[in-house]
Amino acid sequence: MSKKFPYAVRRLDDCQNVADFRELAQRRLPYPVFHYIDGAADDESTKDRNTAAFEDVDLVPDVLVGADNIDPSATIMGRTTSLPLMLSPTALQRLFHWQGERATAAVAEKFNLWFGISSLSSVSIEEVGANYAGPKMLQYYYHKDRGLNAALVERAKAAKFDAITLTVDTVVSGNRERCKRTGFQTPPKITPASFLSYATHPAWALNFLFREKFDLPNLSTHVAAGSNASISIQDYFNSMLDPGLNWQAAEHLRDQWGGKFCLKGVMSVGDARRAADMGVDAIMVSNHGGRQLDGSRAPFDQLDEIVQAVGDRMEVILDGGVRRGSHVLKALATGAKGVSGGRLYLYALAAAGQPGVDRAVGLLDAEIRRGMQLMGVNRVDQLTPDKLRRR
Predict the structure, then answer these.
(1) Of 307, 317, 308, 312, whose CA–CA distance to 283 is shortest?
(2) pLDDT of residue 389
(3) Could you identify which of 32, 52, 246, 344 might form a hypothetical disulfide with 184, taking C-beta atoms 3.0 to 4.6 angstroms apart as the criterion?
(4) Position 377 in a domain
(5) Which residues belong to the active site?
(6) For 194-218, how does the pLDDT look when each residue is reduced to its tens digit (9 = 90+)?
(7) 6 assigned to some structural domain
């Protein structure tokens, strides 16, 4: 139930914002699955700050400027999209709804947005490449298994993906206490404590049990964990990912890939400068949705100084905490080239599959366009720092 409007969200048509989709998702998912999406590291203070940070900056609109021909398109990593909004790569989507990444990709194609799939996606690189048009990125986890690392690159090339985005903030898993309390694993492992929650969500349970077998097809050719063997995400990161990931390895991956290359998880000015020196096409200013280092800065808090340092040398994308079209406008006015988010569509996917994602993105589309009109701008490049004031 909304804190500002005492109305229970029970149907997709009731959803007017991301918070509504979250409420509907909580109703429709077994609690271990919901809390995997919703949770973060330690006290979850960074997750909360990711969204709260936008409230410290106000928009300053212009009026009487004829904002009747709105063009919210943006060019990011060489591809022009209809909105400056990207659907962040997130893992395990068929656990949240049986349609999974297929639903997200279809909506991204409809709205002409960048869409990312995770190395831990539940639909393969090949299927996404073959069936969905529009710009696609592979979010790349750097594994200890060098054969797997090489295979991911070659599969992305063969599927004609537009970019690889190396996640750089997961050399060890964050302390996700909610997942520890609920016993969440992938594939889900039903325990005596969680049985009732699965049993009281029969639609989810029947879809999981009787539809296509859950798999992590980008990984299962090399490792059993997550597909044939149930494992927690924390244990997967700690046992499978290479904590020795460094700048030299990132450069090697960029050269091996040879296409548009992005680093996701850059938070310091020093790292941003080094990424620019390395010649990457873009960085995502991101703290992994608050799921890694609790107590770290929010991406929006850190965005201005990173843009000031490297914004003329590469594209800077804000990732995390976005819940409203006004958040997108504030990030663009600060200097971001685009804005990316995961939970903003994951709650909707969990709530209602493809129709949910479609409604969530449609609402954000309308908020961005309406916000531009109210700001008195026709194009996103007219959102400049003079349109903001910090409280």
Answers:
(1) 317
(2) 96
(3) 32
(4) yes
(5) 288
(6) 788 888 999 999 999 899 999 999 9
(7) no
Q: Which of 360, 371, 359 is nearest to 331 (CA)?
A: 371
**Which residues span the domain enclosing 286?**
12-390
β-bridge pairing 57-59 and 388-390: antiparallel
The pTM of this model reads 0.95
CATH code, domain with 227: 3.20.20.70
Phi, psi of 242 (to 5 degrees): -90, 110
3-state secondary structure of 389: strand
**Tokens 């280092």 — which residue?**
293
Closest by Cα among 165, 81, 162 to 128: 162
- Per-residue pLDDT band for 249 (boundaries 50, 70, 90) equals very high
The reported pLDDT for the residue numbered 198 is 87
DSSP E strands, 15-96 = 57-59, 74-76, 79-81, 85-87
Looking at residue 236, the DSSP 8-state letter turns out to be: H
**Amino acid identity, residue 233?**
I
CB 292 within 8 A of CB 44: no
